[in-house]
Amino acid sequence: MVTLIDMSLIQITESGYYKIADPISESAYSYYGTIGKDDHYRLCNIINDSITNSNPQERNYDLWRVMFKAARLSGYNEMIDETLELNSDIISVIQKHYFENNYEEAYRLAKLIIEARPDSGSAYWFLIRSLIHLEKYGLASEAITQFQQFAPQRDILFLRGFLERKRNNIDKAIEFFDDAKRHGKHGVALFREMGLCHLLNGDLDNSIRYLNLAIGLQPDNSYVIDLIALVATYMKNEHEARRALEKLRIIDQGKYFHRLSRVEFAFGNIKAAREAASRAVKYKKTIPFEAKAQLILCEIAVGNIDEASNLIADLEKKHGNIRKDIQIGLLCRLKIAKNEFEDALINIERMSDHNSKHYKIIKRDILKSIVESGLFDSKELLSYQQRADELESQIDQYYEEHYLTNYDIYL
Q1: Angle at 100 between CA 96 and CA 101, to 5 degrees
Q2: pLDDT of 28 over the 80 cut
Q3: Can you give the pTM of this predicted structure?
């Protein structure tokens, strides 16, 4: 084996398995011909035994892809049925990855299932939502179109609404969710999304109405309780926000400390917000982007500039271009704190959407900080003030009032 590896005839995969080098496998096919159904059947049995006897936490799911393909090519219905029964095991793993914010792995495994079972609704559901979280909107839209061939219209409308909400097209999202509801879609996920969208649009009555419907169906749903705490914070009702937090503390410690940090931050308790944010990033193997971003915001607010710088560098390294405008916004906040105003003005222009409220508020804050610093001559300061005033006129009062409260939504 060592000799074959040295001669590049055998390769070791990333997963630690051996494979015949591609040029050699092509030559082997040419010489021996393609393998028959019996060979596929035996291969499928061997892989099935290997998977069955392995630790579920250590299973390599690339083997599943080979096994599904071998089962299909074997033509034996019994073997196909046996391997397809394992789909539910992988779906459970996908679901686990998805809810732990490990969207790359959820997407990879869901794609594996769809290759074997193109009509797997559960796999498509998680694949599409994972792609949306990864901001691969084009691929998500294509997958929705494929899913539409056999999925109920209500599910397609819901997914399109979810896609638009993540794109921050809130009015379009509400239209899709309303259509999904008219086509018979109900349940916690729909009501939660509708509650969030109406909150973002400033329609607190409808937001509360839908969240009450959701909590009525599932009183211990951590996502809904989290949003209830957010709505209470919007309404500056600290008592109700903390009541919701107490429920969240029992159900999901990671979400609890993140939301606690947001609540403390909104009510001006910055040190307590930082303490909660530092605990929020310790509760999950895959730390959510918003939890990291909240900690950065807190470190900047308390003056821990070096720590904030390190966290921003780590955020970019781990998340790449995901929520890039938010990453740039945090970097600009850091630059303001360091009085590096020219760098802040250069970086703010890297944002993709110059019409967003997020862009306008941060740029205005940079300009205001320049004016307040007094570091430039009077003519320059007047120019900066005029530009800040122009942006101020473009920021609606509702958004301005709740910007720091709902900042995590835009994370």
Answers
A1: 120
A2: no
A3: 0.80
